[in-house]
Specification:
Pfam families: DUF418. This is DUF418 domain-containing protein. Residues 240-393 form the DUF418 domain. Keywords: Membrane, Transmembrane, Transmembrane helix. It is a single chain. The protein is mainly alpha-helical. The protein has one domain (4-391). It has helices at 15-41, 49-52, 56-68, 74-94, 100-120, 127-138, 145-173, 184-196, 199-214, 219-239, 242-248, 250-268, 270-273, 279-305, 308-322, 324-339, 352-374, 381-391. Helix 6 (127-138) packs across helix 10. It is globular and about 55 Å long.
Length: 396
């Protein structure tokens, strides 16, 4: 999302790198949409997903999302966010101007937009969290790419290893400590509000959902240590020109993809192989397996974009990536209009597979619309607004 318009100022010889970055944004946006769809049409925040879906078709569809999508595309999106912030920082540095106040204005806008999005459209907002972590990232941008990459990786995996160990020990001491559970009261409140409530009742429920996810029992601190590492890694990747280096060395990139894909897939499969009701296994799946699989996806996309024909096939997704902020917000608006009571009121009435097909349909329309829009304009509407508020004028 961040920095999508900046790539246009780079040299023509870096076409592969530019397309790879925007395609990564676009496809990660689609992956996030697939997961978000579950919470658009069901009380996903409060139920045990391994027990909620009863039919074999739903269980199979959810398992595919759980293994291949869940916790693997939001890290990729967050890395691209950090990548873009570092890109803007380095550009400002090259032009001899300070990036601090520019970054603060951009992130402040994102904080406010995220709160509006969460309270009045959909409570699963990520903009607020990314922006808060972005403020912390500003303090680290002066460091080298190598340091950013090392620190981000350590901050990601060391706490994950420690928490995984604690959860495993807790499960050994008492199996009830590590069991997924369904909050029946919250599920009922969500169904009542979103399925048949007034707009005011739905807004109250949205605010409660957002507070439960972000502010209860230290959850915001947990979100911070879960998201910030990806921003640091993305910023480090930009400074080290990792995308360009991967594109220039397709054989090494192919090996990297295979190693990380196999390792990530094995870790993502842990709950399904051992015990899907065990929170420890699910945490390992998401906190460790998810990011590893995300790196494999990034390597695979860059690898494909290194060759002419695959690049042509993937290029339409680049437009969706350049308009990722607009498309992300539009997905929430469309999703809630389909499922909430002030819209078509289909909340709690669709299957996982139906939700997947809705995602494919809506995102396909967004890809087409993004390409048509960028054929006439330089930026998406929300991207243009973001830039105008940041710089106080409309940039060309």
């Amino acid at each position: 999302m961040e920095g999508a318009f900046l790539v246009q100022s780079l040299s023509a010889g870096e076409t592969t790198r530019i397309i790879s970055i925007d395609v990564l944004r676009g496809l990660s946006l689609f992956g996030i949409f697939l997961v978000n769809m579950l919470s658009f049409h069901s009380p996903y925040f409060y139920y045990n997903p391994y027990e909620w879906w009863k039919t074999s078709q739903d269980l199979t569809a959810f398992s595919w999302i759980d293994i291949f999508i869940q916790a693997s595309f939001y890290p990729l999106f967050a890395m691209m966010f950090g990548f873009g912030v570092a890109m803007q920082y380095e550009k400002a540095k090259q032009q001899g101007r300070s990036f601090a106040w520019t970054g603060i204005r951009r992130l402040t806008f994102l904080v406010l937009l995220g709160l509006v999005h969460a309270f009045f459209i959909w409570p699963g907002d990520i903009l607020f969290n990314y922006a808060v972590c972005g403020f912390v990232l500003l303090l680290f941008l002066r460091f080298s790419g190598r340091l950013l990459l090392i620190f981000g990786t350590a901050l990601l995996f060391l706490p994950a290893a420690f928490i995984s160990l604690l959860l495993i020990l807790a499960a050994q001491m008492d199996a009830n400590n590590a069991i997924h559970w369904t909050d029946i009261a919250s599920v009922s409140q969500s169904i009542a509000a979103y399925g048949s409530g007034t707009y005011a009742e739905i807004t109250t429920q949205r605010i409660n959902d957002w507070l439960n996810v972000n502010m209860v029992d230290g959850s915001f601190f947990f979100q911070l240590i879960s998201i910030l590492p990806f921003l640091l890694i993305g910023a480090g990747a930009f400074k080290l020109n990792m995308v360009g280096r991967w594109a220039a060395q397709p054989k090494k990139t192919a090996v990297l993809f295979l190693v990380f894909f196999i390792a990530g897939l094995l870790l993502k499969w842990v709950p399904h192989i051992l015990d899907s009701s065990n929170v420890a296994y699910s945490y390992i799946q998401d906190a460790v397996g998810g990011p590893i699989l995300a790196v494999s996806y990034a390597a695979f996309i860059v690898l494909l974009c290194s060759f002419e024909q695959p690049q042509k096939l993937l290029k339409p997704f680049a437009a969706a990536g350049k308009m990722s902020l607009t498309n992300y917000l539009t997905q929430s608006i469309i999703g809630t209009l389909i499922f909430y009571h002030y819209g078509l009121a289909y909340y709690g009435q669709v299957t996982v597979l139906t939700g997947i097909w809705l995602c494919v349909t809506i995102f396909s329309i967004q890809v087409i619309a993004s390409n048509l829009w960028l054929g006439r304009f330089k930026r998406g509407p929300f991207e243009a607004l973001w830039r105008t508020i940041t710089y106080g004028k409309r940039g060309k």
